[in-house]
Amino acid sequence: RLIEKILGKDAFPNVILATTQWSHLGNQKEGEARVKERESKEEFWGYMISHGAKVVKHNDTKSSAQKIVGMILDNHKEPVSLQMQRELVLNNCKVALTSAGKVAEAALDESTLELKEKMKMVDEKDQDEIDDIQEDLDKAEAEKKKLHNATVSYVSSVDTCFLCPLLLFLG
Q1: Element spanning 147, H or E
Q2: pLDDT at residue 154, as a whole number
């Protein structure tokens, strides 16, 4: 969902989802079934595909990569502003107020809840496990704080730019 919120559906016709690691599969039909499943489900790629994104298979070869690059170049439509760009302009460049920021925050909240539940289940004598979970909790809280404090200092013209320094908060 995060990539959907960063791009926005207006950009989906410019998106190519390339599947990789085919040479590592023992059963190609199983891999094809996984791709079909992801294509058909809204929570995977279905939503983006229904709005113009395309899925292609990358066979881990130079010619396959060249074909995909060619598709990208041929497929490139007029530049569009990304949803996150528009939202950053409207929200004073505050990342946490964008749809993508809210998705990231929800994921961090979910992770924090899972870690707290895990902490309740740990034997109080297993100090190493407790320390590991606490360290993960501290990291999640630090990421959430970083997200809330994140701003983008430069957003290019919303009408003409299709790339922008948006992922500063992920660094």
Answers
A1: helix 127-149
A2: 59
pLDDT digits (tens, 9 = 90+) for 116-143: 999 888 887 788 888 899 999 999 999 9
Instruction: Specify whether the CB–CB gap between 3 and 166 falls below 8 A.
Output: no
φ and ψ at residue 73, rounded to 5 degrees: -65, -40
| Ramachandran angles phi, psi of 54, nearest 5° | -120, 150
DSSP code at position 167: G
Q: Which helix (H) or strand (E) holds 54?
A: strand 54-57
pLDDT (tens digit per residue) in 138-162: 999 999 898 888 887 755 544 334 3
Identify which of 74, 94, 89, 82 has the alpha carbon closest to the alpha carbon of residue 160: 82
What is the four-CA torsion angle of 86, 2, 39, 15, rounded to 10 degrees? 40
CA neighbor of 24 nearest in space, from 58, 66, 67, 68: 58
State the helix-helix crossing angle for 127-149 and 99-121, rounded to 10 degrees. 160
Kindly give the residue spans of alpha helices, DSSP state H, lying in 11-123: 28-40, 47-50, 62-75, 83-90, 99-121
Dihedral in degrees, nearest 10, Cα atoms 29, 33, 38, 41: 170
User: Does pTM top 0.85 for this prediction?
Assistant: no
